[in-house]
Specification:
Helix content: 10-25%
Oligomer: single chain
Strand order of the largest sheet: 1-2-17-18
Radius of gyration: 26 Å
Number of strands: 18
Length: about 220
Amino acid sequence: MFNKQALIFFALISFSLQDNNCLVNFEYCEEEEEQKKTVTIKNCKESYMHDGNEECDECETHYYVSEDRRSCIQVKDQIENCISYYADSENEFCYRCDKGYARSIDYKKCSKVENPIEHCVYFSFIREGEIGCDECEKDYYHSYDRTHCIEFKNCNYFINYEENEHCEYCKRGYALSYDGKNCIQSKTCTKFVIKIIQNVVNVFLIFIQMPMGNVKKHYV
């Protein structure tokens, strides 16, 4: 069993973990962002490094990423109002249509959206005659069934599993509240963790100076 001093110690630590009177889960704070590297692959919009090699993540309009991701290949047959493509060994497909248009189920056509979903930017057909949202506006994330957009400010990674739609971790400078409903602003994750460590050390110094009372010695 814990003695009285130990219970006080743990109570003080729990209190020290409060940042502006609001408990936050700093486990999922985003680390410092890496500096963006210059893209050197021709006709590539965004690239990343993998095993020491530059690979393309997204090509310019009317180009698609090659199988080894080292180049961008020009589309042979352009699809009207399509802005992003991909291909297999035989065919080219539309991956994303321009704003205000929805990608067909067979990825071969872009049709004008008649009844847009509020806060949705990019659309595609879920089934014949029914559109779904592929990507929402900033600070919004599409629901599991893609029928609407959910607002969640300052979230960096949003999970939209069935009946479990939530923010997994927040953007840099924010921390997820323990109830998972908000991203709370913090100076930086690094500074926040340092503050916690300093608080724990201070509590420990107070604890070791407390009178421990009578300690019974046992001999065997």
